[in-house]
Amino acid sequence: MNLFDLSGKTAVIIGGNSTLGGSMAVALGGHGADVAIVGRNMEKCEQVVKQIEEVGGKAKSFSADATSTEDLQRVLTEVLAWTGRVDVLMNCPGKNSATPFFEITMEEWDSIMDVNLKGVVLACQVFGKYMVEKGEGGSIINISSVSSEPPLSRVFTYSASKAAVNNLTKNLAREFAPSRVRVNAIIPGFFPAEQNRKILSPERIASIMTHTPMNRFGEAQELQGAAVYLASEKASGFVTGSLLRVDGGFGAMTI
Q1: Among 48, 166, 188, 243, who pairs with 22 as Cys (CB 3.0-4.6 Å)?
Q2: Are the CB atoms for 142 and 165 separated by under 8 Å?
Q3: Which residues neighbour 32 within 8 Å (Cβ) at sequence distance 6 or greater?
Q4: Cα–Cα–Cα angle for 203, 204, 206, nearest 5°?
């Protein structure tokens, strides 16, 4: 019995050229899914495609701006021409800033909200509509953050955007459930991804470790199991509207 076999499925990974998105994309490809890597940096996309091929998977890169409906609609058309189906959507784009609250401009606010929230909304409209109308079920996996519930200092806009992603996830889970399209989110803890390296001073690292019972950062591959689990209807067919923590216990800490 293999609950995690994704053979015959197609997964679209928006932001699949990122550190965490790329690792999860490799896992989906390694478990049999055809994987569409979507991003703006095609060189990084191709690197992830090669990693998927190295584990015996099938993948292809697609260029798109995650905040453009036209780009996402084009990618849907191109993926359907490639494999004839879309079964899994993963939303991984992320943008962050450590700007002090009183210095945040609305240009910066809009830029972060566009990538972290608007991009998820648009992808769910384009690919979610396809899944709902096709009527064969599907899985949407949004990537949230530990800052989405207790907000973290110095990342005001990012925290607000990820809190909205959690709410959107639960709303769409309710909306799409009659069509067997499941919508869940992964809440990663602190991983050495590009968007959080710049704000990790020695003092901040010490604070993070104090609040992380496992007393270490996560490794990108430690998100792979969660991604495969939520992508597989056989493994998580009755799971929707959930926020799955992979955070070393960070969310369990108070004082």
Answers
A1: 48
A2: yes
A3: 5, 6, 7, 8, 9, 57
A4: 65
How confident is the model at residue 152, as a pLDDT?
A: 80
- pLDDT tens, residue by residue, 231-255: 999 999 999 999 999 999 999 998 7
Tokens found for residue 231: 């992508």
Q: What strands lie across the sheet with 243-246, from one edge to the other?
A: 58-63, 34-39, 10-14, 88-91, 138-143, 181-188, 243-246
d(CA 20, CA 18): 6
Options 62, 127, 158, 229, the catalytic residue: 158
Q: Which of 71, 116, 72 is nearest to 92 (CA)?
A: 116
Q: Tell me, yes or no, if 130 is annotated catalytic.
A: no
Nearest to 221 by CA among 23, 13, 18, 19: 23
Structural domains of the chain, ranges and CATH numbers in brackets: 10-246 (3.40.50.720)
Instruction: Report pLDDT digits (tens) over 181-223.
Output: 999 999 999 997 655 566 678 888 898 899 999 999 999 999 9
pTM of the model: 0.95
Backbone angles phi, psi at 57, to 5 degrees: -95, 175
Distance CA 96, CA 179 (A): 34
> What residue ranges of the chain have pLDDT lower than 70?
193-199
Percent helix, strand, coil in the chain, to 5, is: 50, 15, 35
- The mean pLDDT value of the chain amounts to 95
Q: What is the pLDDT of residue 195?
A: 54
